[in-house]
Give the backbone structure.
Amino acid sequence: MSQRPPTDSRKQREQLNRSLFLLVICVLVVGGAVLIGVFYGSSAGLLGLACLLGGAGLLGMLWGIFTLIGRWVSPDD
């Protein structure tokens, strides 16, 4: 009988969190820009896209800071 390698649940959770974060950011930015463009016109949609990308950048910075703090507090590698 072959032994299965141990499951690295922490690594799987980190990958899932990263994937979900990127999915949420993409949906908010693209979906928000499209909806703004549909209701208010293409120029407003482009301005909305710029603003949404700025907000996504801020969220990305916060996510990165919290990730670094998490690695600093519990360095397993």
Remarks:
- The chain is about 85% helix and 0% strand.
- The CA atoms of residues 14 and 67 lie 9 Å apart.
